[in-house]
Specification:
- This protein is α/β, with parallel strands linked by helices.
- Helices cover 47% and strands 7% of the residues.
- It folds into 2 domains: 11-259, Rossmann fold; 329-391.
- A 5-stranded parallel sheet has the order 2-3-1-4-5, with helices on both faces.
Length: 391
């Protein structure tokens, strides 16, 4: 089902391998710099995080007893995490039937195979509203939470939506705005309970990567490694080749391309209204960015806050319902459903491209692996892009 991790440790060293008891979770909103942070952290020889493995998100897989091979197969079908990480699962023991043991067994084994690292865990924006649950499942877990100017997050989401079916979905910027606050609430609650949390801002990280990686190493109680201060030689093989990953795939740490310029005025104003309200709530301490507003915002109205919350809660309900349904329906049925939805999103993406459809397809903006998994090809998309849309 999977291939062995490159440069994995010899089996004879398995007995000497002593991973840490607690996992490390790197969390932030979509497009907030979590991928950059992941790449820099994994430069350390004692850190081996999975990239959006998301097994903790699939807790419903363990609501009924399943053989290890069955939940591994379903997990792979969910997001190809095992193939992306070239992970050999043959050494995962049989009889694992609970989430805690499954995550610990798989993620520590990946860290061992990858480079014998003792710090194991996962980076994923999916966890932005699951911090509380994760801290209960793993009471000793450490969390590194990254923040970014919400205007820049939404600008980056809109840029990614031009070529990514995932970000082209409806409500992504609203999920970022309301979810930003939800992450803060859960982060504060975790700290209040004595949880181990380290927070940083993306803007500060790109300005001083060495200083902030040293701070994270202090938090993790490991010595700093100079390789963590840059992207040279970083392993990013688990990260897809979508255009919105081009910066983290490079060798230089780049702050941003467009900042908040180009944001629709309505969206910019909404963000600034919320930021102003939050600053009042937190006595100016949060959010740290933006440093200044482009307008003179008022607080969002009670109706705006109510409606945004209703829509957000609905979107998050469907987001969390998906893995529950996935855990119980036949994989063949789910595969047909996923192919239908993904193809629909790709075609909507192409429709928005207007006269630039052919350029969008030809320039590899659409991931070849994704198209292959959907049973589609660039030739088919080019043909459909030039044909009349069926009624």
């Amino acid at each position: 089902m999977t291939q062995s991790v490159e440069n994995h440790a010899e089996k004879g060293t398995a007995q000497a391998f002593q991973p840490r008891e607690e996992p490390l979770f790197v969390v932030g909103m979509f497009r907030s710099g979590t991928s950059l942070l992941y790449a820099l952290l994994n430069q350390h020889p004692q850190i081996a995080l999975m990239y959006e493995g998301d097994l903790p998100h699939l807790q419903a897989l363990f609501w009924i007893p399943r053989d290890t091979t069955r939940w591994l197969r379903r997990w792979e079908f969910w997001n190809t995490a095992l193939a992306r990480h070239k992970f050999d699962t043959s050494v995962i023991p049989d009889g694992i039937q609970d989430l805690n043991t499954a995550v610990r067994s798989v993620y520590t084994e990946y860290a061992r195979q990858k480079k014998g690292a003792t710090v194991w865990g996962c980076k994923s924006p999916t966890y932005h509203d699951e911090v509380t649950r994760l801290s209960r499942t793993f009471p000793n877990a450490r969390f590194v939470i990254i923040w970014r100017d919400l205007r820049h997050i939404c600008r980056s989401i809109l840029d990614a939506a031009e070529t990514s079916p995932f970000f082209n979905r409806r409500g992504m910027t609203l999920r970022a705005i309301v979810g930003y606050y939800d992450l803060k609430v859960q982060c504060d609650a975790l700290i209040k309970r004595g949880g181990r949390v380290h927070q940083l801002n993306y803007e500060d990280l790109v300005r001083d990567p060495v200083g902030h990686m040293k701070s994270i190493c202090e938090f993790l109680e490991i010595p700093y490694d100079p390789r963590m201060g840059n992207l040279e030689g970083a392993d990013r093989t688990a990260i897809s080749d979508f255009r919105h990953h081009s910066l983290v795939k490079g060798e230089q740490i780049v702050a941003t391309r467009n900042g908040s310029s180009g944001l629709p005025a309505e969206l910019r104003d909404k963000i600034e209204r919320y930021v102003k309200m939050w600053r009042k709530q937190y006595d100016g301490a949060w959010p740290a960015c933006p440093k200044s507003f482009e307008t003179t915002p008022t607080d969002p109205s009670l109706w705006e806050r109510f409606w945004d919350r209703v829509v957000y809660d609905f979107l998050q309900f469907t987001h969390h319902a998906a893995p529950v349904v996935f855990s119980f329906v036949p994989m063949k049925v789910w595969g047909k459903y996923r192919r239908y939805i993904a193809a629909k999103r790709i075609r909507r993406l192409l429709e928005k491209a207007g006269p630039h459809k052919e350029e969008l397809i030809k320039r590899a903006a659409l991931d070849d692996a994704l198209l292959k998994s959907l049973g589609l090809s660039r030739e088919e998309l080019l043909k459909s892009a030039n044909s009349e849309r069926p009624r």
